[in-house]
C-alpha cells in the first residue's frame, strides 16, 4: 500500500512539485519516498512496504527504462502471474508484485488488467508509446483522482496532492453536495471538489498528447431473471463458495509483514478471522471497536469470537466525545462531506492497529453487497410483499421485525409504517424501488439547503441522475440483483470503501484487505440464484451454510446488525467542543450561503435539548457540520465563495 502522484505534459519545477505532492500524502507511505522525471512526465511515490520490502522501491522502471510505474495496492495473485511470465522466459530483478505488473503490461498492454486479482491503482509511463496509463481495481478499493490544468494531466491517490499543483484550488461542487445529501456519496467521476475527478472503478485511462480516453475493462453483471440457474444444488454451491473464500483469504495473507484482522462480532469479519487464524503460525491479532452506547456496542460477540479462535485481541472503546474530538481529522482524510459519523471510530481503530505495530488487516467488508446481507434487501422484499395487498394491516408489521435495533420504529403505527416505506404509492417497475425510502429519507435533510444553493442546483435530481447511469441490462435482472448492483456499484466504492475504508485506514498507514471482494468470489456470487442469498428474510443464507463449521452458533446464526455510531448526540450536550459551536453558529452558516442559518440554528438547539432525533435530523446535522469543516480545511474560506464561483 502506498500513495502516488504525477503528471503528463510539460511543466516547470517538476522535482519541487512532485516533492510537494508526495509530502501531502506521506501518511499513505511513511516508509520511503521516490520520484521519477522524464520529458513531459513525472511520478512521485510514498511507500508503505508490505511485499518485496528490500527491493520494491518505487517509482520502478523495467530493464529497458521504457516503462515506469507508480503503484498503490497489492496484486494478490502475483506469484502465479510471475511463474507464468518466467515460463515465457522473462527474468525478474525483484521479489515485488510491482515488477509483475510492469512485465505483464510489457507483454499485454492494458489488457493485463483482466489477469490482476488485487486492490490497486497505478500509473505507468510508457515512453515507447509516449502515453500515460492510469488504472483502478474492479471494486474501487484504492482511490485515484485527476484534473487537467493548462493542458497538463495531473493525478494522485488523494486530492490533497492535486491541491499542491499551482492554479488548482479547492471549491465545493454543489451537484456533488446534493448527491451526498441524497445518495451518501458523489457519483463518480464527480468529487466534492469542482473540476477534480475520480477515475471510476474497473476503468483505465490512456493519455496521449492531445487526447485522454477512459474506458471500462470489467463490468458487474447478473443473469437474466428468467434464465435457468447454473446452480441447482445448494450443497455444491456452498462447497464451491467455501473453497473460493478460503483461497481468497489465503491470497490476502501474503505479505512480508504480519497480517491482522478486524473483528466486528458479526458474521463476515468472524468468518474472515476464523479462516485467517488457521493460516498463521502465530496467534492472529484481531482488532475491534466497542461503544459505551449499548445501542451500538457489539463487544460481547467480539470477545466470544476472539476467544473461539484464540486470537490476540485488542479493543478500542469509542466513548462519548471521542467522535467529536477526531471528526475534523476524519473530514481532512475523507476529503468530502459525510452524513454519518461511522468513519470516526474506524479512524480510531486504524490508529490502534498502527500502535500494535501492524501495517495490514483483513476486513469483512463486501460480504453484505455480494451475498445480500443488508436490511435494505430484506426491506425491499417486504415492500413488494406489502404492495401486492396495500390494504393489509398485518403485512406492514413485518417492518418492525426487520429493525429490532431501532426502538423508535417499534412504536410506530401500521399507517406510519406503510407511509414511511412507501407501500401505498410504490411502483414495482421503478429501477430504484429498493432504495427509494433511503434516498427519500436522506434527501429530506436538504430542507436545510439555502435558497441560493437551491437556485444553483436549478432542480437537479440526484436519484434520476443515478438512473441514467444504470446499464442497459439492468431491467432484465431479478429485483434482488438490481438492489445489489445499486449497493455494489455506487455506495460500496463511493462511501464504504472510501470514507469508511481506505481513507480511514491509510490515515494511519494501514492497508485493509477485503477477501469478499476477490473478483472470482464477486462473479461467483452474482451468478447464484437470489433465493440462495436471501432465503425468505434470512440474509446471506449460502454464506452461513458454507461457513457454519467455523463459528460459534451465536455468531453464525446472528441476524445482521449494521455497523453504526452515534451521530448528532456525539457533538452536543455537556462538553460541546468550540469548533462545533463555531461551525454551526448563525454567523458562520449565513456567511457560507449553502444552508439556511435560522433553520440550522433550530436544528442545533433541537439536537441539544432532545435525547433522540430521527434519521433526517442526524443526517442533516452531520452533513452540515462536515460540510463546514470541509470548507474550512480545504479552502480556509467561507463556504459562500463556492456559489459565487
TrEMBL record:
Pathway: Amino-acid biosynthesis; L-asparagine biosynthesis; L-asparagine from L-aspartate (L-Gln route): step 1/1
Upper taxonomic lineage: Bacteria, Pseudomonadati, Pseudomonadota, Alphaproteobacteria, Hyphomicrobiales
Entry superkingdom: Bacteria
Keywords, in A-Z order: ATP-binding, Glutamine amidotransferase, Ligase, Nucleotide-binding
Family: Belongs to the asparagine synthetase family.
Residue intervals passing through the bilayer: none
Organism listed in the record: Mesorhizobium robiniae
Annotated Gene3D superfamilies: Glutamine Phosphoribosylpyrophosphate, subunit 1, domain 1, HUPs
Pfam family, one: GATase_7
Catalytic reactions of this protein: L-aspartate + L-glutamine + ATP + H2O = L-asparagine + L-glutamate + AMP + diphosphate + H(+)
Coiled coil: none
Protein name: asparagine synthase (glutamine-hydrolyzing)
Residues in Glutamine amidotransferase type-2 domain copies: 2-210
EC number: 6.3.5.4
GO MF: asparagine synthase (glutamine-hydrolyzing) activity
Amino acid at each position: 500500500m502506498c500513495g502516488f502522484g504525477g503528471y503528463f505534459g510539460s511543466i516547470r519545477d517538476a522535482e519541487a512539485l512532485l516533492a510537494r505532492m508526495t509530502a501531502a500524502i506521506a501518511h499513505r507511505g511513511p516508509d520511503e519516498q521516490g520520484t521519477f522525471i522524464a520529458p513531459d512526465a513525472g511520478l512521485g511515490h510514498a511507500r508503505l512496504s508490505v511485499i518485496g520490502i528490500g527491493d520494491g522501491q518505487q517509482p520502478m522502471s523495467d530493464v529497458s527504462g521504457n516503462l515506469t510505474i507508480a503503484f498503490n495496492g497489492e496484486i494478490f495473485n502475483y506469484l502465479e502471474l510471475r511463474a507464468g511470465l518466467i515460463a515465457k522466459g522473462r527474468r525478474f530483478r525483484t521479489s515485488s508484485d510491482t515488477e509483475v505488473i510492469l512485465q505483464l503490461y510489457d507483454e499485454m498492454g492494458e489488457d493485463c488488467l483482466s489477469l490482476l486479482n488485487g486492490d490497486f491503482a497505478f500509473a505507468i509511463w510508457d515512453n515507447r508509446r509516449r502515453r500515460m496509463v492510469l488504472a483502478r481495481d474492479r471494486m474501487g478499493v484504492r482511490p485515484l483522482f485527476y484534473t487537467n490544468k493548462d493542458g497538463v494531466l495531473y493525478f494522485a491517490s488523494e486530492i490533497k496532492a492535486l491541491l499542491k499543483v499551482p492554479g488548482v484550488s479547492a471549491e465545493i461542487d454543489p451537484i456533488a453536495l446534493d448527491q451526498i445529501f441524497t445518495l451518501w456519496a458523489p457519483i463518480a467521476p464527480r468529487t466534492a471538489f469542482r473540476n477534480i475527478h475520480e477515475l471510476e472503478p474497473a476503468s483505465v485511462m490512456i493519455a496521449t498528447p492531445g487526447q485522454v480516453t477512459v474506458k471500462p475493462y470489467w463490468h458487474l453483471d447478473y443473469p437474466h431473471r428468467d434464465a435457468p440457474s447454473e446452480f441447482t444444488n445448494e450443497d455444491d454451491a456452498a462447497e464451491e463458495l467455501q473453497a473460493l473464500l478460503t483461497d481468497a483469504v489465503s491470497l490476502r495473507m501474503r505479505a512480508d509483514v504480519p497480517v491482522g484482522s478486524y473483528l466486528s462480532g458479526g458474521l463476515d469479519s468472524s468468518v474472515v478471522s476464523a479462516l485467517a487464524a488457521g493460516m498463521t503460525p502465530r496467534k492472529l491479532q484481531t482488532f475491534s471497536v466497542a461503544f459505551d452506547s449499548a445501542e451500538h456496542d457489539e463487544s460481547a460477540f467480539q470477545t466470544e469470537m476472539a476467544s473461539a479462535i484464540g486470537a490476540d485481541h485488542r479493543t478500542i472503546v469509542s466513548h462519548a466525545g471521542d467522535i467529536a474530538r477526531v471528526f475534523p481529522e476524519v473530514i481532512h482524510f475523507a476529503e468530502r462531506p459525510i452524513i454519518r459519523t461511522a468513519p470516526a471510530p474506524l479512524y480510531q481503530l486504524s490508529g490502534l492497529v498502527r500502535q500494535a505495530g501492524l501495517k495490514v488487516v483483513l476486513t469483512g467488508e463486501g460480504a453484505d453487497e455480494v451475498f445480500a446481507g443488508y436490511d435494505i434487501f430484506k426491506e425491499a422484499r417486504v415492500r413488494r410483499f406489502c404492495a401486492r395487498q396495500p390494504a393489509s394491516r398485518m403485512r406492514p408489521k413485518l417492518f418492525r421485525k426487520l429493525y429490532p435495533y431501532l426502538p423508535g420504529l417499534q412504536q410506530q403505527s401500521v399507517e406510519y409504517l406503510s407511509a414511511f416505506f412507501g407501500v401505498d404509492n410504490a411502483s414495482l417497475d421503478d429501477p430504484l424501488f429498493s432504495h427509494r425510502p433511503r434516498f427519500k429519507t436522506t434527501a429530506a435533510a436538504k430542507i436545510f439547503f439555502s435558497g441560493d444553493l437551491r437556485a444553483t442546483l436549478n432542480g437537479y435530481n440526484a436519484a434520476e441522475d443515478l438512473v441514467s447511469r444504470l446499464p442497459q441490462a439492468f431491467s432484465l435482472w431479478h429485483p434482488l440483483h438490481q438492489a445489489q448492483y445499486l449497493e455494489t456499484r455506487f455506495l460500496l466504492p463511493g462511501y464504504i470503501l472510501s470514507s469508511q475504508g481506505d481513507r480511514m485506514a491509510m490515515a494511519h498507514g494501514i492497508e485493509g484487505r477485503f477477501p469478499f471482494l476477490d473478483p472470482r468470489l464477486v462473479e461467483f456470487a452474482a451468478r447464484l440464484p437470489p433465493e440462495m442469498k436471501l432465503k425468505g428474510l434470512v440474509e446471506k443464507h449460502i454464506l452461513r451454510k458454507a461457513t457454519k463449521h467455523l463459528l460459534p452458533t451465536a455468531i453464525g446464526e446472528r441476524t445482521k446488525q449494521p455497523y453504526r455510531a452515534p451521530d448528532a448526540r456525539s457533538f452536543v450536550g455537556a462538553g460541546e467542543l468550540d469548533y462545533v459551536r463555531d461551525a454551526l453558529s448563525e454567523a458562520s452558516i449565513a456567511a457560507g450561503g449553502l444552508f439556511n442559518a435560522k433553520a440550522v440554528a433550530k436544528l442545533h438547539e433541537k439536537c441539544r435539548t432532545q435525547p433522540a432525533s430521527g434519521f433526517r435530523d442526524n443526517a442533516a446535522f452531520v452533513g452540515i457540520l462536515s460540510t463546514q469543516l470541509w470548507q474550512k480545511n480545504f479552502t480556509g474560506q467561507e463556504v459562500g465563495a463556492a456559489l459565487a464561483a
